[in-house]
Amino acid sequence: MTKLLSINADAKTIKGNKKGFMTAIQYLSPYKDSGVNLCANADNAQCHIACLKSAGRMVMAFDARLTRTKLYLTNQAEYFRQLVKEIKAFIKKAEQNNLTPLVRLNGTSDIRWENVGFYSEGVYYRNIMERFDAVQFYDYTKIPNREKSINGVQSFPTNYDLTFSYSGAKGFEKFTDRAFKDGKRVAVVFDRVENIPLTFHGRKVVSGDDTDIRHLDPEDVVVSLYAKGHAKKDGSGFVVKT
Question: Does the reported pTM lie above 0.85?
Answer without folding.
Answer: yes
